[in-house]
Specification:
Helix content: 40-55%
Number of strands: 11
Shape: flat
Strand content: 5-15%
Distance between the termini: 36 Å
Number of helices: 18
Order of helices and strands: EHHHHHHHHEHEHEHEEEHEEHHEHEHHH
Length: 510
Amino acid sequence: MTVSFSVDRSRKRPAVDSAVAGGPASVFGPTVSPRERVGRNVKDRVHRVTTLLCVVDWTIAASAVFLGIGLRVWQRGELDRYIEKLDTHAGPIAAWVLGGALLYSVLLALAGTYDPSNLYRMHFTVRNILQSAVLWPVLVLAFVGLVRLDDPAPRLGVLYCACTLPVALIGARIAMLGFMMHPRVRRATRARLLVVGWSEQAAHLREALASDLGQLREVVGCVPTPGGRFRHEPPADVPVLGAFSDLARVVGPNWIDGVVLADVNLPAPEIRRLIAFCQREYLDFHLVPEYFPVLGSKLEATSVSGVPLLGVSRLPLDSAFARMLKRGFDIAGALVGLVLAAPVIAFFGLLVRAESPGPVIYRQTRVTRGGREFTIYKIRSMRLDAEEGSGAVWAQREDPRRLRVGAFMRRTNIDELPQFWNVLKGDMSLVGPRPERPELIERFKHEIPNYNVRHSVRAGVTGWAAVHGLRGATDLRKRVEFDIYYLENWSLMLDVYCIAATLLKNKNAH
């Protein structure tokens, strides 16, 4: 992931001390001629494309409003009368069409539809179109009631328009995909990045940019650090475009839009000269940090009284509203789950008691949010003396300690149904990192980097790692990676997906 420091190109560049910047030619060779940069500003090209999309959307929205009004008039059986008196209705119809389309376009813009970062994110655009289709009639009906408009599109006509708008706009966006995906358009809207040095993070960045259609950046080459050194050798398909001292001669012919510093061990004076060069040549400067292996996608540059700080920004579940939403979802899901699971728990409880006399419900101490310990409830699936000689250990595939009915329960997750009670009590969530035992955590936190980050949220009955088969005796480091991804990318839909996947998958359950 990158931390971006974009240059404000609207301001006059302050003078840079030649001792710092290295002078116009002494460090990076001859500077780029302004004439070479004309027409190469990728941000201007992206804004032209988004402006085109905005105009197309407004035109389609106007046509959809006109169609909605026409459908309502036709449904009322008054189409012939409106056609005969079109000259008297032309003004009101034009006001409805132009004003309604403008309002819809404003709603789309306010939702971020035309932000460059969302240019190729079709799912984001469709979501905004549907959300705007819900908000649009509310605002229009409020306006209609305020000024008491009845013609040419009374209240029911507004609802007709609210149906034609999303259908027309989504259809238009799908039709525009061919234009958006044309190689020339893709090349014109993608910023070309030059990497200084090379590292594992730079390789990960390159792969992420290449695999994400919504990213408007691509790595086109690299240069070594001063002295011609690379800490890590770049892949064979990443061209080395020149030497560090020849940056000025490299960025022009290769149409470079931004520079990424991958080797943060570069001496501070060299970094300052590199930043000064990027400011002088209208290039964005990016830094790939090496000291934030955890929650890296949430790194953010902030400023406190003019002092820049680099750190982890707020996570999705740091929001009070998000936490309340998740808790409400948990309570509703736990109540439904307990009602549906009660007869299943009773039936398998009888089977457990018949095979192995003793308690049916198994209680064990686990750890949840903030390191708090709690008692987890499960239907007992193993013998009563399962850990007498071994102590706390993970369950293994084909574990000989299991009961006969226990093997089936663990494979189908039936033994975990009593955990709905833990969710209702607030010890757990429906979705989150799997809870672990305190004695195992004391070992894991020293062996697994960033292990305790997973305790930033409540433990879950299921989770992002679990639905990908990372449960039981699997790679713990990989599980932590998936848990961190969940923390950084939480949404209610992600929880819904995890629950649905849990019902359909039983991967690595044992």
